[in-house]
Every structure is written in structure tokens, then in C-alpha cells.
Amino acid sequence: MKINTALILCAGFGKRLNPVTLNTPKPLLEIKDISMLERCIHLIEKLGIQKILLNTFYLKDQFSAFLNSKNFNIDIKIIEDGEHILDTGGGIQNMIKDSNEKDFIIFNPDTIWSNDYKDEILKMEKMYFSKKLENILLLVNKKFSFDKKLKGDFNLKNNLINKEVEKEFIYIGCQIINKKLFIKEKIENYSILEIWNNLLDQKKLFGYESQKDFYHLTDLDIFKKLKDL
Questions:
Q1: Torsional sign, CA 13, 18, 23, 24
Q2: Which residues does residue 30 pair with via DSSP β-bridges, in sequence order?
Q3: What architecture does CATH give domain 5-148+171-190+208-227?
Q4: Most exposed among 25, 37, 45, 100, judged by the fewest C-beta atoms under 10 Å?
């Protein structure tokens, strides 16, 4: 079993990075002359995935111009959120509604992705299929986070996510999820957190622990520090 389609979430406003995101959407900001989105696409190519869907809303025309300027060796299709921004849950549901695939890997381009993540993600994918899961999130212990202001989101024990005690783990923006978890009848603005929280209540939210240093484009201060690395 293998994931064939990756989604990249590119619709957000990037307000915490104003003023640099007033004219450039966050995924197209560059660290060491390579945009966040390009790093993400290169990793997806290395994973052997055949197709990318990416959603847009804010400054959407820049994404088609960017893709036209590059020669990526992968099928990439833009799916617009439409007249209103859909947030993470609605955005994902809108991207997958016409797909025949059942399982998708989803990336946030806020993380500085690199080929160093390839083996971990392939192991996460293997666990997803071998254990017949419907979701799995890539998490890292917050001690590996470059941005020390980031608080933990979850706990992780035996690949099961909980929120019961000290939250030591951060979601780093990569997950595999099954289409059937999206049960809203109409596509609307809602967060993927709604689905995660429902799974948490059922003790059915799963995680895979990354051992990599985690670099996340949180805000303007971190952006400046990352450019100086």
C-alpha cells in the first residue's frame, strides 16, 4: 500500500509574519534562496508520490506564477478555496472531494522540510497501512524545536496521542488521513482540530515520533533568525 496524492496547505494569510506577508504568501517566503513551498515539493518528490494538490486563497495568483516558473517532475494541481477561506478542515475536504484516493498525506509548508525527513515519513506511512489506521500525525518532542516559544500540542505514548498530562510533543505539519474522517455534508470553514479532537475523545488519534531538529516559520522574529542560520 502506498500514498499516491499529497496535499499542501497554502491558503492562509500568514498574519504573524506581517509585513513580509503583505505582498508574498508565507509558503513562497525564501530561506537561503529556496521557498518553503519548493522545499516541501522536493520532499514529496523524494517520497515517490505521484500527485500534489495545493489549496490557495490569499495572494493566490502568485502560486500559479511560481509553479509555471519551475519544472517540477510531479503532477501539481491548484485547488482554490473559493470565495471564502476554508481553514484546514474545509480546505482539505475541498481538495479531496473529487479524488478517487482514500488516503492522503498532508503537509503544512510552515515547516522547513528537507530530505532528512524521508525515512521517517516512509516509516510512518508503513505503520499507517500495516496497522490499518485512519490517521497518523508526525510529532516531535519540543526539546528539538528551534523556536523555544512553541508549546507542546499533545502527549504521545505507544503511538497513541493524548492530551492528559504535560504536553511534550509538537505537531510538525505532516499527517496521513483517510477520506472517511471528513463527514461534514457541505464544505465550510472549519479546522482539522475538530476531527482530531473527536478522535482524541475516542482514543483513536495516532502519532509517529520524529527525531529531527524542528524548524518552523512561526513569526517575523523566527524568520529573521532562520535566515541568519
A1: negative
A2: 35
A3: Alpha-Beta Complex (3.90)
A4: 100
